[in-house]
Amino acid sequence: MTIRPFRFHAPEAVLADLRRRLESTRWPDEVPRSGWDYGANLGALRDLAASWRDGFDWRAQEERINRLPHFRAEIDGLGIHFLHYRGRGPDPLPILLLHGWPSSFLEMVGLAPRLADPASSGGAAGDAFDVVVPSLPGIGFSDRPQAPGMTKTRMGALFTRLMVEGLGHARFAVRGGDIGSGVAAWMGVDYPEQVLGIHVSDVLRPGLGPESPPLTAAEQAFLAEEARWMEAEGAYDHVQRTKPQTLAYGLHDSPVGLLAWIVEKLRSWSDCGGYVTRRFSEDEILTLVTLYWVTETINSANRLYFERDRAPRFLAPGQRVEVPCAVTIFPADIDRPPVEWGRRAYNVQSWTEMPRGGHFAAHEEPELLARDLREFFRPLRAAT
User: Fold this and answer.
1) What residues pair up with 324 in beta bridges, in sequence order?
2) How far is residue 164 CA from its own chain's centroid?
3) In the chain, how long is the greatest CA-to-CA distance?
4) By C-alpha distance, which of 368, 287, 322 is closest to 60?
5) Contact yes or no for 192/117 (Cβ under 8 A)
6) Is residue 204 over pLDDT 90?
């Protein structure tokens, strides 16, 4: 496996074209005083687009990004980008940090240093991790898959090869949120000799059969709330899992369309109280959206939902993820199951209800998450 250092430089012609498109945006109308009820708010989008066009400095953000420890590995003909933070401690534990959608490796830049060098943020050097942060295939600096089949199972196989063959880690930990949670879970099922434990914020649906214990009142309430949420908020999921290519023509061609598609999720899914800039600065929002724009990866990112449903995988009745598991539930996340639901599907050894935070936990609450990761994996380190 070939691993090389990596730097990125967006062509100036791409940035000039972006500015031109922002200047020529054809804005839709909006029902007056409707806020965000119909979707992304017109006034908020106009303000962000103006900042993107006139004030945002991608070159400054690009320079900051390039100071991170970037690498690319070729695995089965696919280029996988990752950050690699070397642990600063007596015996760092290798850990894989997996993001979701519409996120990127940028979500982890506040969490990863806290794990790699815990002593720098009030922790103990003995809790250090050797941190690997890949970009999911088709997102950011990883290659766009050119064939069907990039499922969570497939991603788990690629990342296991990266950790074992590429980086020489016979045993390692995995932390994931959103899509990354599913990848982590199936890695625990498929590679229990390599994965010593997983830490997730979203859980797989357990396999329920005639012999399964009846659902508790809390589980029934959770399923009812999940159904209500999907009806009110799940349009993105439905279109991305059924017709992502049709959606791509708008998002790939219009920077404001792309901005609206992403920022609405940042606002709705984070613990921001309806004000997205409480959790994401303008620069952070525009850096994420520009990353998708200059790498042309929104279509390949959205296709991951189609691949998920093209070859669905489920736990069988009675089957669990048997490697040790920690679950963290953040109060503003989109999925907040009760502990008994998680225990049907996982070998749950830690279940933490966080006091604040949302779907983008590594960005929103890196210190809370770092502490929970240190505490959970501390007794498992001997297994390496």
Assistant:
1) 347
2) 22
3) 62
4) 287
5) no
6) yes
Of 27, 52, 54, 55, the closest CA to residue 41 belongs to 27
d(CA 301, CA 303): 5
Please write the tens of the pLDDT for every residue from 80-122.
999 999 999 999 999 999 999 999 999 999 999 999 999 998 8
pLDDT tens sequence across 297-340 = 999 999 999 999 999 999 999 999 999 999 999 999 999 999 99
Give the CA-trace dihedral at 353, 358, 359, 364, to 10 degrees.
-110
DSSP state of 317: B
Per-position DSSP letters for 249-301, written without gaps between them: HHHHH-HHHHHHHHHHHHHHHSSSTT-GGGTS-HHHHHHHHHHHHHHT-HHHH
Tokens of 160: 């296991």
* Single-letter residue type at 100: G
Q: What is the pLDDT of residues 126-166, one digit of tens each?
A: 999 999 999 999 999 999 999 999 999 999 999 999 999 99
Cis-peptide, bond into residue 102, ω within 30° of zero: yes
What gap in Å lies between CA 210 and CA 65, rounded to an integer? Answer: 52
- Give, as one character, the DSSP assignment of residue 165: I
Looking at residues 262-289, what average pLDDT do you find?
A: 98
Would you please indicate which residues are annotated as catalytic (active-site) residues?
A: 178, 305, 359
Q: What counts of helices (H) and strands (E) characterise the chain?
A: 15, 9
Instruction: Using a cut of 0.90, tell me whether the model's pTM lies above it.
Output: yes
Q: What is the 3-state secondary structure (H, E, C) of 177-245?
A: CCHHHHHHHHHHHHCCCCEEEEEECCCCCCECCCCCCCCCHHHHHHHHHHHHHHHHHCHHHHHHHHCHH
Q: Do 157 and 150 meet the contact criterion of CB atoms below 8 Å apart?
A: no
